[in-house]
Amino acid sequence: MKTGTPTSITLQFYGPVKQQIDGDDMPVKVYRVDFGTGSNEVDVTNNFDVVMHPGDDPRKVKIVPDTKQFRPKYRHRLVPITTIPGIGETLLLCDDLLTANEVPVEGRDYWVDVDIALSMLDMGGNSWVDALDLVLWANTPEDFNGDGNADTQDLQLIVDNLGQPVD
What we know:
Layout: E1 9-12, E2 17-19, E3 28-34, E4 42-43, E5 48-52, E6 60-65, E7 74-80, E8 92-94, E9 110-114, H1 118-121, H2 131-139, H3 152-160
Antiparallel strand pairs: 1-6, 2-8, 3-4, 3-7, 5-6, 7-9
């Protein structure tokens, strides 16, 4: 498992894909779910942009967060949209197929678990999460969990990881 906060996630499909319509409709929805409980699913799609065919690869769709990013300590569910609610038209399609009709991308969810990198908690830079990090955090609090606040939840991350070596 890779730790830290990814700057983007790229979905790669078996074959070329295309977005059926232009405009504000996103071909992928992004939901955030509490890591521990698996509850409180929140639609955070508006916090992301989708890049079709990054690097000119027609099989890829890249999901790029704005400044809120993929938040640590949360699971993110990525859902390719294969029908437009209320209209029933397919939004993300397979491309360059030798078929008479358009074929939607198979509707399947992708999960991204974002963990806290211990290196983020090592404020003292001594390769350990230790009491020095508690003192430094008390003097200059930092937001480790990505919720926009430097608060007791961030302090608790240091406490929970005291004594851990940093890779």
